[in-house]
Amino acid sequence: MLKDFQRSYKLPVTGKLDQQTLKLMNTPRCGVLDRPLAFTLANSWPKKTFTWKWADSNFPKFGEEKTSEQLRESFNDWAKYAPITFQEVSRNEKADFHVAFADNSDGPGRTLAYAYFPTNGRIRFDPAESWTHRYDNDGTNFRLVATHEIGHALGLDHSTDPSSIMAPYYKLIQPEVLLPKDDRQGIQALYGTKTPPADEFTESKTCGCAGWCRERGKPYGVCGNGHTCICSMTELTKENIGSGCTCDAWCRNRGYHKGGVCGDGYTCICASSADPSKVTIKNAQTGLRLDSNADGQAYTVAPNGGPFQVWHIINTNENSFNLKNDATGLFLDSNENGDVYTLTRNGGANQKWTFNGRTIINVATGRALDSNYDGKLYTLAPNGGNFQNWIRQ
Question: Is the pTM of this model over 0.90?
């Protein structure tokens, strides 16, 4: 039995409870039982489009916003390599994957989390662990464990490849090396290989960026100006990359409000070093600033330097953004009637916005953020007028 364990996890097969074997046995791990093979397939879901939600009222110590961000990254780790998509929904909506803390705990440093194979959808984390979003040894990295458990929920069993994210024992891995070959082959065996569509830009056909990006793990690529390649995990269109395929528009469309320039190493260099960006938003026609209050009302008023006029532009990794008020923590929202207000974050499309030049478009309704000299805020069908232009400062 001990030799089987050592053989499965590529330890020296001594048959003795030596130091290496004890160290691995005492390493924090996943609660799913092992079947010692290289990537092992349980079964898959009968579909490729999924919804997920954090179904708990409590969160790791880094809070609700960072928890959602970490989970989006974890689901996207798998979507990079297979034709599957994931959409976050609010806690009161139905979802394929329910992510939450477990009801019971075996204490810190033991079973970190567990998940059920398709099509159960439950993923549970031990609340006693010291969860962190940082990639260091000060706690257990939430994203790495989430990516592992999502692998189970999608149908992957444990792997005996020690470099695999699906190895049963926790190991700190830097995000740049996710996912190794073993994991990519596993998810593709279940759901197929992600094949990007034919190039839509003539620039791509002449400069070779589509192939250059694919070689580096990004399935979509087009040519920017200044001898650059713009690579993405999602399909690039002229609408979401900006007029003329320039790096300045590409950066602005991803929340870097000061734009960007083309580098000389197939890169876009964006002016803001961090995402989310913190900005004030001025109506181009009236000069009034986007403002809100704790009651959820949204409007425009003259600039006053207060925190109610400061907004965080938070990238949702779906070519859209949330607009979070700095003072209230509420998110800009809208409806089909054109009303604009702020609510607590719910993950819905009505809280997602895109920037088309200076126009701010609501993802759910397709309507553009608009205002008037009286400070009223609403959405209308895009009309090209200056009242629908907004300047991020």
Answer: no
Q: How many domains are there within the chain?
A: 4
> Which tokens belong to 277?
């960006």
Kindly report, residue by residue over 88-131, the tens digit of the pLDDT. 888 889 999 999 999 888 788 778 999 999 999 999 999 999 99
Q: Is 312 helix (H, G, I), strand (E, B) or coil?
A: strand
Yes or no: say if 48 and 85 are a contact pair by the CB < 8 Å rule. Answer: yes
Does residue 187 sit in the same domain as residue 138?
Answer: yes
**Which two tokens mark 191?**
């759901």
Concerning whether 69 is annotated as a catalytic residue, the answer is no
367 contacts 381 by C-beta, under 8 angstroms: yes
Rounded to an integer, what is the distance from CA 153 to the centroid of its chain? Answer: 18
Whether the Cβ atoms of residue 51 and residue 96 lie closer than 8 Å to each other: yes
SS (H, E, C) 18-87: CHHHHHHHCCCEECCCCCCCCCCECCCCCCCEEEEEECCCCCCCCHHHHHHHHHHHHHHHHHCCCCCEEE
CATH at residue 335: 2.80.10.50
CATH of the domain at 161: 3.40.390.10
Give me the catalytic one of 69, 129, 149, 203.
149
Domain that holds residue 129: 31-191
Cβ atoms < 10 Å from Cβ of 202: 10
